[in-house]
Structures are given as C-alpha cells and as structure tokens.
Amino acid sequence: MNELVANVTVSGTHDASVIRPRRLVRRPRILEVAAETAIKGVALLSILAVLLILVFVGKEALPVLTSAEVHNEVTLGGLFLPHAQAGFMWQPVSNEPKYNIVPLFLGTLKVTFVALLFAVPLGVAAALFVSEFAGKRFREIIKPAIELLAGVPSVVIGFFALVVLASWVQRAFGTEHRLNSVVAGIALAVAVCPIVFSVSEDALRAVPKSYRSAALALGSTKSQVTLRIVIPAAAPGIAAAIVLGFGRAIGETMIVVLATGNAAIFDASLERSTRTVTATIAQELGEVVVGSAHYHVLFALGALLFLSTLVVNLGAERIVGRMRRRLGGTS
Amino acid sequence: MVRAARLGVGGRSHVADRVLLWLTTLAVVIILAMLGLIVGNVIIGGARTLSWEFISQSPRDGMTAGGVFPAIFGTVALTVLMTIGAVPAGVATALYLTEYASPRSRLARLIRVCIANLAGVPSVVFGLFGLGFFVSTVGGAIDRHLYGGDMTYGKPALVWASLTLAILTLPVVVVATEEALRAVPREMREVSLALGATKLQTIVRVVLPQATSGILTGGILAVSRGAGEVAPIMFTGAAYFLPFLPTHPNDQFMNLGYHVYVLATQSPDIDRTKPLLYGTVLVLLLLTFMLNLTAMTIRTRARKRARTHD
Lengths: 331, 310
Prior knowledge:
Chain A is an all-alpha fold. Chain A has helices at about 1-10, 20-25, 30-45, 45-60, 65, 70-75, 75-80, 100-135, 135-150, 155-175, 180-205, 210-215, 220-250, 255-260, 275-285, 295-330; strands spanning about 90, 100.
C-alpha cells in the first residue's frame, strides 16, 4: 500500500495510469474517454472562434480586393491615396462616395496618442506605488478599486466624457469644438489605465525579491533600487503593458463614438473633432445596404483592426513570455 | 523594505526617494479620483430619476418620459443566454488546460494563445463577426432549410447577440476557472486517484467542488462584462425601442448600454432626455458594480481559504 501511494505521488496527476485505477474498480472506460473527448472538443472552440472571426470578417472584406462591382465605386488605391479634388476624404454617403480611410486611421492614432500620453505614466506609476511602496492594506484597497474602474462599461465613460468632461475641457482650454481628440483621449485613458496598471504590476511583481534585497544591501537607496534595478528588470513587461494599452485604445468603440465628435477631418490638430475607425464601423454599419461597396469597406476596416490587435497581442505575449523565462531562471 | 531603504547609507538621495514616493502616490490618487468623479457624477445626476416607476415602466413619449424596464429585461435575458453558452464552454476549456493537457502540450499552448487573442479583439469586430457569421450565415442557413426561406433567424436577434457575447466573455470565464482549478492542491487529486476513483470521478467530485467559487467568480465577471458591452450587440440584436418584451430567441431586445447610446446620440430633445439618460447610466453602473463587487468578494474569500490550505 505504501508503495502504491508513493508511486502515485511521484507520477503526479497527469499520469495516473501507473496504478491503473480503472481496473481496480472496473469502471466502464467508455465514459472516461467520452468525457475527455467532449472536454477537449469544447476546448477547441476558442481556436475555432478565432478562425471563424478571421474567416467571416475576412470574407466580407475580401470583395474590396476582388469584386469588380465594388471597384466601380472604390478602388484599392482610393482607400489610401488622396482624391483628385477632395484629398483625403471619407464621405461614403454622397453622389460620388469617397472612401479614403486615411483620415479614420489618423483619427484613431490621434485619440490613441492622447490616451497613452495620460494612461501610460499614470498606470505605470500606480503600479510602481503598489509594488514598491504600498503596504498590504493599501494594496488591498487600490487593486480592487482599479479593477472596479476597469469594470465601468465603456458606454458609461463615453457618456461622462460627452456630458461632463467635454464642458470642463472646453472651459479650461477654450477649444473650438466641444468634442475633440483631447476629450476622447482623456476618456479613453480611463479605460486604458487599468490595463497598463495591471500588466505593469504583474511585471514588477515578477522581479525577484532577491534583486531588491541585494541592491539595498549594497547601500542603494529606495529610488536607486526602483529606477536602476526593478524598472530595468521589469522593462519588457512594462513595454508589453504599453503595447496592450495601445491595442485596447485602437479597438475601443463606445467611448470614441460619444466623445470624438465624429467628423472625419484630415488634420493633425488635437482640438478639432475627429472620427476613428471603430466609431465609423459602429455608426455606419447599421444603415448600410448589405453587400454594397460601403458594407464591404466597413468590413475591411474591421479586418484591418482585427489584424492590428492580433499582431499587438501576439507581440505583447512574446515579450512577457521571454521576460518570465529570464526572471524565472534567476529567482 | 521601505524601512531598509531609510536605514540605507546613501543619505543624500533621500530627496529622490521622497519625490518618487510622491509621484507614484499622485498617480494612484488621480486614478482613484477618476473613478470617484465618474461614479459620483452619475450617482448625483441619476439619483433624482431613479425610482420604482423608472425601473418598472416602459419609455413613453418618444423616449422622453417613462422608465427603462424593457432595457433591464433585455439586458438580463441577453446575459442569461450568454452565460448558458460561455460558462460551460469556459469551464470545459479550463478543465482541459489544467486537468487533461500535458504541460508541454502544443495544443494547449495554441488554445491559450487563442484565448489571449479573443480577449484582445476589439468589441466592434465581434459585432461585425456576429453579423457576418451568426446573423447572415447561420441564421440564413436555418431560414433556408427549416423555414423555407422566410426571414425568421436570418436577422438580428437575441440569440445571436447572446452567442456573440458568449465568445467575447469566454476568456473571462476561462481565466477565472483556471486560477481556481490551479489552486486545488495536487494531493487531493492524488488521494482521490489512489483511492480508486477514476479521473472523471476525481474531477467531478473532488476538483470541481473545490473550484466552485472560482467558477462563480468567472461567471459573474462575464455577466458584468456582457451587461456593459454595446458595440457587439448593435448589429446582432439590440433595438432602439420595442413595444413588447422579447419572448423568443429570435426576437430583438432593448438593452441598457445601447439605450444609453441611443438617448445620448439620437434624442430629438437632449434637455428633456438628460434625466432619463442619467437614470439609465446609473442603473447600468449599479448593475455592473454590484456584480463586480460580488465577484471580487467571492474571489477574495476563496483565495484566503486556499492560502490556509497550504
């Protein structure tokens, strides 16, 4: 009996076959196999889901490349190159529809830039506070509070920006347009901040305690330890946090729908209304004729968005994985 | 650690220490202030509107009066259906990853990558996907084969919006369940197997009961997330206004978040709708906060219990 138990402990949970428990009790094996197959099958759903998204968003986007019917209204060049008279213009509903998507991407980048300008310093600094300075009690208040902030629905943040924040910003800076990139960017920062915080905090916490102790023992001050040891060690994770924050910012929809003003203006100004890729899809897809050029262009925008976030996520994951392996080996 | 720094030899750098402490504290204060401002503003603005009538009545007079009952009903129906899809699938995925797959399994790694990516896909892309896949393709096929081409399921509907949200919230369930499953001590599985239980018996009678609170946490967080999403349901089932409550899976439905969007952007008279708008936002915010707080409480308790086990 002792031998048996020892055997199980050594072999671990994944290889119970050593003691062949099924034979001991003569259970019907078929149920085991069926359950394992079913569970494995359901687990494959997540792979299937990603593939289906790729296929079905891609399928509706593809006519932009291939369909002659779509090309009558918009050519591939027309999506990116300036129109002879109108320049870079997104104006899908008009006698001569213009589908230049450059202003939309510019809008997304402007708003994202403002959002990261606020969210990155705030999120990283707050993560530093929690991992390096806060006591246990503080930590147990701050982390759930930020989690709660992450749980605020984006339409609520958008509403707040539209009704309250926009007036504050206009009063403070006297901007021409009430809704603009700055208002939307600040609102977006509220949504991005929790992600930057939690990913950075994970990274900072992954830095082994021995690093800090060693540096302190050698006579470094707290700030030296933090700035020269902890942050460099966690830098890849913090970079991943910024990358993931970027991914969240370009994909966010309801905040920018409500807070940007939605005018597809092609300029670099942050204090004028702007229109993002996501807001364009959200506002125009409901009224578009299924199968029209406009419909396919909107799906193409979605496909581009999907591919960008895919790249962003995979990139961030690689960075984090590499950092964990490096830190894990030395702790 | 802080104390060790104060004892440190480099006394002249104490200013830097203090500056760093103040800067990071400031960041925390600003973040908490953002939360406080939003919540405070919504509570103050919405409290006057919030009443039993507001919660129990339908909108009237072109949505400038009345309540939000159909939107609450629709949100609940949506998230219940979503949960039926997301929780079993999420739990099974987590079970596969922790109980069945070997640590080096490439398939398990691929599944993890896909889960992480699903969590990062923009919600509006889920809306496009729901429209292109569920509404047009699946719904269209059902209509062709079962309803002789009549438009029955090939249109935006409660069931399609729920399924779209189920995929969107799948990662939430998987992550929470996996954490709970990993917290179950390995010895428990070993003892169960050593006593002659099969793997399935061990999972069903030993592992899962231990992980209940984690699964519950995941489910509640998923509901909270799903209740607040708007972009994925805009084209897959949500309606501006419906004079009836949805009773069939192929009905359209009203939704709190979508109602906020509609009132904020399409209202003919913004001053008259503003109180209703604030009231709706407050209901939505209270709903998601209560769900989040419940999930966090359950999780904290489960984590404490797990720690005492060790």
